[in-house]
Amino acid sequence: MSEPAGKVYLVGAGPGDPELLTLKALRVLQDCDVVVHDRLIAPELLDLVPEGVERIFAGKRRDHHHLPQGDINRVLVEQARAGRRVVRLKGGDPFVFGRGGEELEALVEAGIPFEVVPGVSAANGVGAYAGIPLTHRDHAQSVLFVTGHTKNGEPDLNWTAICQPRQTIVIYMGLKPIRALCERLIRHGLPAHLPAAAIENGTLPEQRVASGTLASLPDLLAEMAPDGPVLVIVGSVVSLRQELSWFERQEPRLLPTGLEARGRRDH
Ligand SMILES: C[S@@+](CC[C@H](N)C(=O)[O-])C[C@H]1O[C@@H](n2cnc3c(N)ncnc32)[C@H](O)[C@@H]1O
């Protein structure tokens, strides 16, 4: 007898605001047998999963991983081999600093069918809610997504490519190495007075923004002492926030029942 055909859906959950989930993601969440989820997803999204669907927490914290990547890959393969429809729910977009590619490689090796459902990445969602357009004809013609994550504490990036005029730099996982990052950017030619912002808990009611320059941002962040995920945006587009910030100015929003947003902690 042939094995039952399971399948894995690699799904982006968006950056925080549960309403940023796509309709396709909602459909697969409501029609699956098991959800394997990260910590950085809106907890309300799990309330959208029908009762009886198994939930497996795969974790991932800043400095240690709850389940090692190899174990996560194994869980996905085992669940699908048991004939189940598996949703692998990841924060933001699974293909942007999300290890989505690594998980799919393991599925390919095991011969498991899959689909990818993209999500709103932090750069898009958090930029939007902070009132910072990533490109603008008067400010930036290109935008670069980089990771501040380092193995030995030293950022190792292509500084020449990063330090270009009229370019926005979006730094994921840049909180810990922020001082070294800002120093390197200045040393490789970006002006110390270039606008730079750090957004904590972007798209959530707890969103906080530290806005300054490359020179001042590390101290501003130290003062802010963030507890949630932080995205750093560098470039003259950051100055547009003065005029374009909207999220902090609006009345608290009433979300559909069950979708009330809750804050998260990134450590
Ligand atoms: C491991 S990366 C995952 C990125 C995710 N795949 C995406 O597309 O957004 C986690 C980093 O994304 C950024 N991030 C994710 N959600 C965020 C949020 N709501 N506010 C600020 N930064 C966020 C932070 O830099 C955090 O350290």
Structure description:
41% of the residues are buried. The mean pLDDT is 91. This protein has 267 residues and is an alpha/beta fold. The chain starts with 6 loop residues before the first strand and ends in a 23-residue tail after the last helix. The protein has 2 domains: 7-120, Cobalt-precorrin-4 Transmethylase, domain 1 (3-Layer(aba) Sandwich); 123-248, 2-Layer Sandwich (Methyltransferase, Cobalt-precorrin-4 Transmethylase, Domain 2). It has 9 helices and 10 strands. Helices cover 26% and strands 21% of the residues. It has helices spanning 23-29, 43-47, 69-81, 100-110, 122-129, 159-162, 178-187, 217-224, 241-244; strands at 7-12, 34-38, 54-59, 85-90, 114-117, 142-147, 167-172, 195-200, 208-213, 230-234. It binds S-adenosylmethionine (SAM). S-adenosylmethionine binds next to α5 and β10. S-adenosylmethionine is lined by residues 15-16, 40, 90-93, 96-98, 121-122, 126, 172-173, 199, 201-203, 229-231.
CATH topology of the largest domain: Methyltransferase, Cobalt-precorrin-4 Transmethylase, Domain 2
Shape category: globular
Name the CATH class of the largest domain: Alpha Beta
Number of domains: 2
C-alpha end-to-end distance: 47 Å
Strand content: 15-25%
| Helix count from the secondary structure assignment | 9
Bound molecules: S-adenosylmethionine
- Order of strands, widest sheet: 3-2-4-1-5
Query: Unreliable runs, pLDDT <50, ≥5 residues?
Result: none
CATH architecture of the largest domain: 2-Layer Sandwich
**For the report, how would you describe the main beta sheet?**
5 strands, parallel
Q: Would you tell me the overall average pLDDT?
A: 91
Bin the helical content. 25-40%
User: How many strand units?
Assistant: 10
